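Hello everyone,

My group is preparing for a crystallization screen and wants a predicted model to guide construct design. The compound we'll soak is pyridoxal-5'-phosphate. Before spending weeks at the bench, it would help to have a computed complex in hand. I've included the protein sequence and the ligand's SMILES below. Output in structure-token form would be ideal because that's what our pipeline reads.
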Amino acid sequence: MIRHDFHSDTQTRPGRAMLASVLDAPLGDEQLGEDPTTRRLEERVAELLGKEAAVFLPSGTMCNEIAIAVHCRPGDAVICARRSHVVTAEGGGPAALAGVMVHPLDDPRGILDPGSIRAAIAPQGRYAPRSRLLCVEQTVNREGGVVWPVAALDAAAGAARGAGLATHMDGARLMNAVVRSGVPAARMAAGYDSVWLDFTKGLGAPIGAVLAGSRDFVAEAWRLKQRWGGAMRQSGVAAAMCLYALDNNVERLAEDHALAGRIAAAIADLPGVARILPVETNIVIFETAEGWPDAPALLAALARDGIRISAFGPRLLRAVTHLDVGPRAAEALVAALARHLGPRARA
Ligand SMILES: Cc1ncc(COP(=O)(O)O)c(C=O)c1O
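Reply:
Good plan to model first. Here are the tokens for the complex, ready for your pipeline.
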């Protein structure tokens, strides 16, 4: 049985207080715009992100896919980092749903340089796909929860907008970046036409994400939400928990960051750890050395210890801290890694 789940920050369960927040939430038909709790959440997130309007959606993936489809036409190209979620983990949605190509960039740590963005923008003409959208991820998941500095966000958006591209921010862990850097979410998103927040990551809610942008953008997003079956009914039962998360679970993200930092420091010098990415927020990514357990072997050994982390490659692994793993879980993880990757454990 898994007792300590570091697979992802999606592994939280709603606690009693979060669940209780649903009981008194006013409800209505969301599809008709009549669910007061959902509307309150949308207004609150629009304000938090500094945008005119917002729309509640079931998942972050739907936020990304709807945004890409609103910004682009079939045959257009989306510029983004190679390991970004829209490329690696959305089932080919950009191609299947919006008919676009992705133009992946390999800039270090997923922070796209204005020079490489400008170089990636196709010359105008009838041969190349039309470069239409820049998509950035805050924080950068597969690079270890890296926080884009606000100057880099502005510079990337400036390069894209200067060439007439639209800009989109995948904010699955935007609040982690906000808590880590102290830069307000609206400031981070200032150069981006669309941006969203996920409530099912570190914020700890079971369902929901909110996509924000201009009133016109959100009206178009609603067309696709309706078309793709994302329009709901009494969605306030989910929105209430998202509001609870905004009120109670933002500042505490700092605890997740501190814990991730402590885990990384404790395992960095183990002989079986070949490489560990710098930890900025709640994600610890490390690689095991040749001659030591590879990712499948380590996952299996940890599972026997009642611990789950995830594999990103043959030797690349990820552990994520969140509401439901505290210092004792971290101690158990560190002790288990020391057993499997420490001096006496060579494979
Ligand atoms: C960076 C990033 N973007 C998008 C998503 C998709 O979010 P959801 O699981 O809510 O669809 C995730 C989820 O893991 C993510 O890490």
